[in-house]
Amino acid sequence: MQAQDRPDALTGWRSDHVALAFGLLVFGLHALCAGRYDAFRDELYFIVCGRHPDFGYADQPPVVPLLAAGFYGLGHSVWMLRVPAILACGALAFLSVRFARLLGGGAVAGAVAAVSVSIAPMLMGMVATLNTTAFDPLAWTAIAYGLVYAIKTGDQRALVLCGVIAGVDLEIKYALIFWGVSLIVGLALTPERRLFTRQALWWGAGATAVIALPSFVWQAAHGFPFRELAAAARDKNADIPATAFLLNQVIIMNPVLAPVWLSGVSAPFVIPRLRPYRFVSIAFVTCLALVIATHGKDYYSAAAYPVMFIFGAVAIAAWATSASRSVALATGAVVATAFSAAAAPLALPVLPVPMLKAYVQRLPIQPQQQEKSFHGTLLPQVFADQLGWRDFASQVGRAWAKLPASERARTSIKTDNYGEAAALDVYGEGAGLPPALTGHNQYFLWGPRGQRPVNLLVVQNHPERLSPYCQETTILGATYSPDAMAYENDKAIVFCRGLKIDIRSIWPDLKNFS
Q: What's CA 512's distance to the chain center, in Å?
């Protein structure tokens, strides 16, 4: 097949006005609200990690921390910090149209695909902040696109490109393993297993290994801390039965859109021209099963849905050939958009905080709690963890300012978790605070950060527990922000004067991989 005959030659990508329009529209809508609240707990942590460049970190590969530090450094703007995630969601809308065309769909199929991946509440929420999951929907869809393209056109270079994309995604988040294993299962169970005999596929696998190797080597050199974190996550995550998990998947992907992705699962088995791509549907089901079996959170499988939306869009567009069916399709699109508009305040920062609180309280169905620690917090965690960190840094800063200058010079600050520590490192820069200490995740591996404190300013519950380690303790304040995560409030800010031990000697006991 010649390049000009291929359904996705480069000229097609540049001239697809439908794909470009959806990509720009989605980018613009997300850009409008990206900076409404403040930085998320993990975003602050990523900024600090990225300021310490490395080939890996305890709980994630290096790319997102490096992006966070780089983009936040361009003016210390939360909006700028989130530009990479906004670009990813715009690119996904664009790719969805192109994928639908690759499968033989026209403008209607492309529009249904782009609308579906853009308004599904969970997919909207995944790009509300700069996080390691924000890029998975785009990467997983691009890998599936490359495999389908190679099968349809015979262009084996796409298999190498799939490997490159997989390698880059593994340097962003290790969750690609779910999709990779699922695709292997899907290929192995269908005639498309012949791809395993293609040299280009193995060149792609080699590219994946080479690109992902630095992070793997870093993990190995540090005793694979991510393995400990994954084990701890199973205890931290709420225990959700499989049936409840699947029902929640329908809700968070928009129940009105369920016929689209369910059609996508079945389409390769009932539409002859899609039959060569049955492996993708099998991969989707396998991925869901893996997430359920490993007690993963609801968003762990979310990146697999765009491909099913695309397949479903092609099937539904082929079905909607009569006037009555076209009306039914248009009506469904309006209802689905209305549902997602109603759910948008739970996914994106579109409402002022007071309005959001009132909105959440009036919801007939509350969002499913994914972590045990969520109890007692009104707002969804993605928002509660964007509200209060400046208050936290200010409250600790005021306690710090109460110390005589002679004491501050030999005092370090210790917190419970990386969110608190990162908030101090990022928002406390102008207050003259020393680098914060905690045993949580990457901060544990950094150790005391070159400090040998004589005193500690400690933020924690139960200040009485400090007595064995301090000659004298004085409570200088407490943490509180009305909209923050409940467990971050009412912690004591305690001055521990005269440490009885060298903090380096007890550092191993502070380890908290979770």
A: 22
